[in-house]
Design brief:
Blueprint (H helix, E strand, L loop, with lengths): L1 E2 L5 E2 L9 H9 L7 H9 L4 E4 L3 H7 L6 E2 L5 H5 L17 E4 L5 H11 L6 E2 L3 H7 L6
Parallel strand pairs: 3-4, 3-5, 5-6
Antiparallel strand pairs: 1-2
Length: 141
């Protein structure tokens, strides 16, 4: 515990509240996001695992990225932790390059933060999400 300017005890680990825009800016400052064409090329070269975290209704409505692994957001950490007992077969090492894809590129940024805290230091997300992928004319099924 720390002491405030007013002499009150405060938890030094508790940060003042921030808005979502400020939080996203802070999170994204810690890594380089990837553009759709770069993600496509990295996946084709075997240098990246594309992970689609969109919920089922969006996948049903808009389609899927061929080759992307679908992992619902609420299971992401369990499926990608190389030390976890519930990990995907692809999640074997901490240097795995993971590209997280949500619908528009917001939830994926927050997911990357969590993956990086698990030690997946090459985790990134798709700028603009699935919608940017589709707008770039990249494959969708």
């Amino acid at each position: 515990m720390a002491v405030s300017d007013k002499g009150e005890q405060v938890n030094a680990d508790v940060r003042p509240p921030v808005g979502i825009d400020e939080l996203l800016e802070h999170v994204r400052a810690g890594y380089e996001r990837i553009e759709p064409q770069q993600a496509y090329e990295a996946a084709r070269a075997g240098d990246a695992l594309l992970v689609d975290i969109r919920y089922a209704a969006l996948r049903d409505r808009d389609g899927l990225i061929p080759g992307a692994v679908v992992v619902e957001r609420n299971e992401l950490e369990w499926r990608l932790d190389p030390q976890g007992s519930h990990r995907l077969p692809e999640a074997t090492r901490h240097d795995l390059r993971v590209v997280v894809i949500c619908n528009e590129g917001y939830a994926s940024s927050l997911a990357v933060r969590s993956l990086r805290e698990l030690g997946l230091h090459r985790a990134t997300d798709l700028a603009g999400g699935f919608q940017a992928w589709r707008e770039a004319g990249l494959p969708v099924r």
